[in-house]
Amino acid sequence: MDIALIGNPNTGKTSLFNNLTGSYEYVGNWSGVTVEKKIGIFKNNKDRLIDLPGIYTLNPLSKDEGVVTQFLLTEKVDKMLNILDASQIERNLYLTIQLLEYGKPTIIGLNMMDVASKRGIHVDPVKLSQTLGIPVAPVVARTGKGCTDLAATITEGGIPTPNASLVHYGTEIEEAIGKLAELLEGKQNYSVRWLALQLFEGNQYVKQYLYSVIGEERLNLFLQQIKNTINTNYQTSLELFIFQKRKAKIDWIIADSAIKRNLTKTPLSEKIDAIVTNKILGLPIFFLLMYLMFMLTFDWLGFPLSDYLDRLITGPIASGIESLLSYVGASDFIHALILDGIVAGVGGVLVFVPQIFILFFFISLLEDSGYMARVALVMDRLMEAVGLNGKAFIPMMIGFGCNVPGIMAARTIETPKERLLTILLTPLMSCSARLPIYALFVGAFFVQQKALIVLSIYVLGIAVALILAKVFSTTILKGETSLFVIELPPYRLPQFRALWRSTWDKGKGFIKKAGTFIFAGSVFIWLLSYAGPSGMNVALDDSYLAVIGGFIAPLFEPIGFNSWQAGASLITGFLAKEAIISTMNIIYFVPDEASLQGLLSNYFTPLSAYSFMIFILLYIPCLATTATIYKETGSKRWTVFSIGYALIIAYILSFVIYQGGKLLGLV
Amino acid sequence: MIVLIGKLKKGEKGRILHISNTDLLVRRRLLDLGITEGSEVCLKCVMPFGGPVMVESCGQCIGIRRKEAIQIEVEKL
Ligand SMILES: Nc1nc2c(ncn2[C@@H]2O[C@H](COP(=O)(O)OP(=O)(O)O)[C@@H](O)[C@H]2O)c(=O)[nH]1
Ligand SMILES: [Mg+2]
C-alpha cells in the first residue's frame, strides 16, 4: 500500500516520516527542506510511506511544490496522511480541504500540539475528526509520541473514504463540476470534483492533464464559461470565490473544534527576533556568527583535532600497517601500493574529518534552529541589488557544506530565472571538500595568518558569486520580476540527537567517499605514478602521471604553478575536490602532512600558493555537482556554461592575483 | 486611519483593506499563508537600506519586500 505524506511546509512531515519508517531524512526548521519525494517502508515492512515537499495548496508556484501535484496526477496513491500544524490550524486546513476533494482515504496527524498550547490554542482531535469525518491522531513528531497509534490506524485499513463535498461551492460551480463530469465520462479515473476545482483555481498541472484528456479547445471554452458566470453573478474572480467558500467552511470548523485564548506574553521567538533581525544589529550578528563558525572550524577547534588525527594516521597506523605487510611477506609492489597509494591518498583526506564535521555541525545548527530563514531576510536587500532574492542565500549557505544539496535547495525559489542563477552560482561556494586543500596550503605558507587567509578565500567566493549574479542578471538572464515572500518559522531549541543525526548524515558522505571513490582513485593515481611509458616502477618524473600533468601544466605558467604535479592534481580535482589532496599526497609521497608542507615550498611560493587556492576555489564544479546541475536545469547548454564560466573566471582571477602580486613585489 | 503596511511603525497593528495592487505572485503567496483582505497584521521589524519588512499575522511571521509592503493598504488598529 502506498501512503502519501502531505502537509504545509515545516509542519514536521519529515520528522514523522523518520519516526514511522525508522529511516533518516533531512529535517530542518525552514520551509523547503524536502524538495523531492522520498520513499520509506513502514516498520511493518509492508506499506510504503512517501514523504513529499511541503505545500500550502495543491496549486503550485514553485518547482518543489509542483512535485506534489505531479505526484498526485501520475502515481498511484492508496491513502493519504495529512499532517497539520495545530498552531497554524486555519492555514493548514485549507490544504486538507483540497486533499479531501481528491477523494482518497485520508487520516490526519495533528502535530505541534506543544507549540499550539504555548500560544493558547487548543485543538480538540475528537471534535475535529467528527466535523471532517476522518480519523485525527494527535502526535508529537519530534519525540515520536503517538506515532505507533498513528501507524496502526493508517496501515490497518478501515479508513472511510472522506466526504469530498465538505465544502459546497454554490449552484454555479457545482453545476460546472457536473458538466465536467459529463465531458470526462469514462476517460479517466481521478476525482472529477478535485480536477474541476483545481482547474478553476488555476492549477497549471491539472490544466495540462485535462488538455490531454479532452483537448485544449473544449476545455478552454468550458473554463471561460464558468469564469464569466462567476464574474457577472458575484463581481469577483473564480479563484477568489473558491477561496472564500473554503475560508468560510474553515472558520466554521475552527469555531467548532478549536479554542483560542489570547495570550499577552510575547513569544520567545519574537524576543529573539527583536535582536537578530534588528535594523542595525541584524547584519553584524550574522557576520559574527559566520566568523565564529569559521574560527572554530579552522582555528580554535578543528585545526588541533586534524593535526592530532594526522599524527595518528601517519604514525602508529601507518607503521602498524607496514609491520603487518612485512609480517605477511607482501611483495614490494603491494607494499608500495598500500602505503604510498592508499594510506597516503585516503589517509590524507580522512585527516580532515574533524574539521568537516565541525562545519557540518554548525550548518545543521543554523538549519534546525530557524535562523536560516532570518538569514534570508537579512540578506535580501543585498541579494536584490544583484538581481536575486534573499532565499537564494540559503542554497549558498548549504553549499558551504556540499554543493549538491545546495543546488537542490534552489528548487524552493519561485521564479525560474532566479532559480537558474542560484544553481549556476552555488558551485562558487567553497564546499567542505575544498577545505583540506586550504588547510594544507595555509599550513605550509601562511602559518601566522591561517584563518585570515582561508576566510579571504571564502569571502572571495561569495563576492565573485554576487558580482556574477549582477552580470548575468543584467545580460543573459534578463527580465522577470523577482519574488520574495518568506515564512519565518518560530525558533526551536535544536535537540542534541537531531543535530548529531543531521551532522552525521552530511558528514558520512565524506567518509564514504573517502572509502570508495577516493580509495579507487588513489589506487589508480598511484598506478599512473608507478608506471610510465618506459615500464614499471619508473622515477616519478617519467611516469604516466607526469606525462599527463605535464601536458597541461604550461597553461598554468601565467598563473604561477607550472608543474606537472599541479596539472595532474587539478585534473583529478574534477572528479572530487578532495582528490586533489590525495593526488598531492601520492605524488609528493612523504611520511606525514608536515613534511608534505615542507616539500611544497620547493614548488610553490606563498603568492603562487594563494593563486592556486583561488583557482581551486573557482575552477570547476566537481563531477557530482555537474551531474546535479544537469539534472536540475535539464539543459546541456547551462551545464556546459557552468563549467566554462567557472574556468574562465578562475583563470582571470588567479592571473590578476599572481601577476598583480608579482608587480607589487610579493613573490 | 488608512495607511500602507510599509508606512506603519514598528509594533503597530492594522487590518488589511486592500491588497490587489501588489504583484500577482506575491499576492498568491500571501494568500497561501492565509494573509488577505481582512487579516490583522503587525509590523515587527524593518531591515535597513530599504530592505524587507517582517510582518506578523495570526501568530506567524513573514518577510516581504518593502516595495510590496507599501502597496498593501491597512486600517490602523
Ligand atoms: N516543538 C515541536 N517541534 C517539532 C515537532 N515536530 C517537528 N518539529 C520541528 O519542526 C521542524 C520542521 O520539521 P520537518 O520534519 O523538517 O518538517 P517538514 O518541513 O514538514 O518536513 C524541525 O525543526 C522539527 O524538529 C513537534 O511536534 N513539536
Ligand atoms: Mg520535510
Automatic annotation (TrEMBL), chain A:
The keyword Zinc does not apply. It is a multi-pass membrane protein. Keywords: Cell membrane, GTP-binding, Ion transport, Iron, Iron transport, Membrane, Nucleotide-binding, Transmembrane, Transmembrane helix, Transport. Residues 1-160 form the FeoB-type G domain. PROSITE patterns: G_FEOB (PS51711). It holds the Pfam family FeoB_Cyto. It comes from the Bacteria. This is Ferrous iron transport protein B. It comes from Cytobacillus citreus. The lineage of its organism: Bacteria, Bacillati, Bacillota, Bacilli, Bacillales.
